[in-house]
Amino acid sequence: MTRDGRLLRATVLGLVTFGLIAPIVLGLWQTGRAAFGILPALGQSVATAQPWHDLAALPGFAASLRLTLVTGLGATLLSLLLATGFCAAVHARMTTVAGARLLTPFLAIPHAAMAVGLAFVLAPSGWIARLLAPLAGWTRPPDLATVNDSWGLALTLGLMIKEVPFLLLVILSALSQIPVARHLAAGRALGYGRGIVWIKIIMPQVWPLIRLPVWVVLAYALSVVDMAIILGPSNPPTLAVAVTRWFTDPDPTMILPASAGALVQALIVGLAVALLVAVEQAVKRLGRWWLRRGGRGVSAGPGLWAAGLAVVALMAVGLLAMLSLAVWSVTWRWSFPQALPESWSLRPWSGARDSWMRALANTLLLAATTTALSLALAVAWLEGEDRARRTRAPWAEALIYLPLLIPQIGFLYGLNVGFLRLGLSGGITAVIWAQVLFVFPYVMIALSDPWRALDPRLTRSAAALGAGPGRRLWTVKLPVLLRPILTAAAIGVAVSVAQYLPTLFMGAGRVATLTTEAVTLSSGSDRRVTGVYATLQAGLPFAAYLAAVLLPAIVHRNRRALSGGTAT
Amino acid sequence: MKLSLGLVLSLLATPTLADWQDRLEAAQGQTVYFNAWGGDARTNAFIAWVGEQTQDRYGVRVVQAKLSDTAEAVTRVIAEKAAGQDDGGSVDLIWINGPNFLAMKEQGLLHGPFVADLPNARYLDLGPAAPASVDFTVPVDGMESPWRLARFVFAYDAARVAEPPRSMAGFVAWAAAHPGRMTHPDPSNFMGATFLKQALIELAPEAALLQQPVTEAAFDAATAPLWTWYDALRPNLWRGGETYPANESVQQQLLNDGEVDIAMSFDPASTAAAIADGLLPESARVFVPEGGSIGNVSFVAIPYNAANTAGAEVVANFLLDPATQARMQNIEVLGSFSVLDPARLDDAASQAFAALPTAPALPTLEELGPTLLEPHASWMTRLTEEWARRYTE
């Protein structure tokens, strides 16, 4: 280990600890103080458990809790089942790269934009109902709760439409590290059906590779705010929405029970992850016994096809939702039961041009800076590992995932107070910092595997030719890794564009982005203007993904081995 | 001696031009962060126009921080106070009303009194009982400046509804005859709470009590008939009263989609404006209960720690300019009624108001009937709490 390597590692560790982890701990600390009644601004300085009693007594608290568990656990479990089933059904016919391309629009579109589109597609007066209206003879929308239903079904569906593609991608990339075809052939030769080979042989190998992403999906589904506002029930809403509402209640003393609620939110995520680990252990024990029994009679075939069909149906609804956003953005009047707008117009675009241009400029600035910072930090981290010739310790992995596992609402209020103390009041700097907390982990996750998969012979050859560590990084590693770096950047852009709560809290509402505007406007009545913002919101990350595909193809047009994306 | 004392008194009583000149100079080059609900494109466009005007005239830029709920801005100021940031705050001007104002006033989070110092305050009736001096029965005390007039009205689609209900009590029979065809915004939202208050004023045995701060005994007595009425109404609401639209805009969208037949608004002109904007069918019209409806004034306030206080005052003053108010009342621009006292306008200003265009869905002042006073702000808090307790499962 060289001095240079040690310095680099120390710098990266310092940046991550003080830049990313400390703010979260600080935020949790502030929220925790308020949860126990300490809020000097309101003249409260004595620790008390009163906020917890107040929280428990708030109307709908228990129902909110139940709703959160049902939608969060339900959406995660169903998404995982469907994604696994779909992979088993179609894996032989789809390469990782083709799959990733197919899934790109679903990964790129932010949750809020998808929710806005879905709300229109699913509503009793929505697109599906309009298409059915001539058949069913409806002149008025049926009085059915198909969105904002009290069971949270629309919210569960919305989460699944976003999470299934993410899990598919994660599983596909895990499968590329496993000799699937050989396992299948061996299993068949021993008389096992295709589905059973997947369950008994392949999934046990895939699971350790996708465990952390599943935790992230679970944490997200349990604490999502923007999607739950748009699709979820309103009376009572899910806990995360209720806590956000209490934080912004006209009665400022509500901040105390709201803080307690934010801690409950974090506790729920912790317990859900613990539950998942317990289930994993149980399955491990039972699974071994089941494997040794060696039964061949069970067929999982029909289940796989059902999962495949369900995924296709989900994607179709998702595509319809994205399309509806674009259509609304060029509509003038479109009333029930017309299947298409009565009159079209570009006025939604031209009328709000100054506003969306400003929001677009802010969004671009934030996406560019947060992605650049996160990429630089990620490359420095990975290069530090290389120079130390060390693999990543579990605690380091935990550091990366921490911001994604702790619910945002748990520490954002406290973080805001902390930032204000530091004099980092509601400006673009504070928003950049807060967004990097969430952009960096995703960039790091996206870049780690391709970075480690880099053929070590390349750098060894360069070293043998006399290139120092710096030159090996700049002239060998980074150019060869251009495609995965750009893919990680595109993911960074998508994550930055989608950030709602951090932008709202840290920007003091002053930093208007496409997402904050889209969520605010979805509280208004003009679907056409919302369509404009949501279209832009989806278009920006999509353009970034497109660039990630096209740029390497152009740069490496005369280097065949580099354009195929071996490292992705 | 007498003469000079009189002179001094008159100087103290009315702000001199020189004082305002100082404020204008201080405001020059400032950027005012106007925190205002951002769900209405026309209001957003109007605020953008205000910004262009103040930039040209006074060198004051206006940036609208678009809120989905006014309480967001209140929370922000509290967070700043919590962090000890007593100046250079991020909120300069808030569009505010009722409980949010009461909360800020009680916590000492407001700058002022400043209204009487605004030159355009001379067009206002600032008498102690005037609507511009009281916000939900709480005296304004010069801590917030009026900018637009609000009246609670219902909107309906005349093509689908022949006879809208004539009173709040009448909604029960109407909803029974048309189940699932009406709803109200969630009472955690201002408009949903107003729907309940409108019914409370009509149904309460002793409406005068509502002007006093709420007490437990008064609350139980006053609201008993309200809950009976609501229990009869709720089963026939849209989706059986299990879920409610988040605010009046979402409900207007439901009316446009044909999911419900009745919407509500705090702006008598909003229906005509929405028709012009393609957001409601041409057949949409406005009605109010026969006994009249709740009315109040929308205000702007300046937080105690605002970074650009002088700029915020200049904007508040510009909002009260008769030309600004006439433009705001123009149905083609915003259509909100003016807060100015017509008796104090000069001929040119009166002419500007008289020459404004009209629209079929724009109610006349006679059609709007009498204005009912808002109950004391504490009633609203208590009412929404009790509603949440009773109807949140």
Structure report:
The complex is a heterodimer of chains A (about 575) and B (about 400). Chain A has about 575 residues and is mainly alpha-helical. Chain A has helices spanning about 5-35, 50-55, 60-90, 95-110, 110-120, 125-135, 155-175, 180-190, 195-225, 225-230, 240-245, 255-295, 300-330, 345-350, 355-390, 395-405, 410-420, 430-455, 455-465, 470-480, 480-500, 500-505, 515-520, 525-555, 560-565; strands at about 330-335, 345. In chain A, strands 1-2 form a two-stranded antiparallel ribbon. In chain A, helix 12 (about 255-295) crosses helix 17 (about 410-420). Chain B is α/β, with parallel strands linked by helices and about 400 residues long. Chain B contains 15 helices and 11 strands. In chain B, strands 1, 2, 3, 6, 10 and 11 form a 6-stranded mixed β-sheet that branches. A 3-stranded antiparallel β-sheet of chain B has the order 8-7-9. In chain B, helix 6 packs parallel to helix 8. The longest helix of chain B is centred in the first third of the chain and has 18 residues, at about 40-60. Chain B is globular, with a radius of gyration of 22 Å. Residues about 5-15 of chain B have low confidence and may be disordered. Chains A and B meet through helix 17, helix 23 and helix 24 of A and helix 3, strand 2, helix 4, helix 5 and helix 9 of B.
What is the structural class of chain B? alpha/beta
- Summed over residues and divided by their number, the pLDDT of chain A gives a mean of 87
Indicate the structural class of chain A: mainly alpha
Strand content of chain A: under 5%
Strand residue percentage of chain B: 5-15%
Distance between the termini of chain A: 28 Å
Any idea what the radius of gyration of chain B is?
A: 22 Å
- If helices are DSSP runs of H or I spanning 4 or more residues, what is the number of helices of chain B? 15
Sheet with the most strands, sense and barrel status of chain A: 2 strands, antiparallel
> Which oligomeric form is depicted?
heterodimer
Range of helix content of chain B:
40-55%
Q: Biggest β-sheet of chain B, characterized? A: 6 strands, mixed
Q: Largest interface by residue count?
A: A-B, 67 and 73 residues
Please compute the radius of gyration of chain A using only Cα atoms.
Answer: 25 Å
Query: What string, H for helix and E for strand, traces the elements of chain B in order?
Result: HHEHEHEHEEEEHHHHEHEEHHHHEH
Q: Average pLDDT of chain B, to the nearest integer?
A: 89
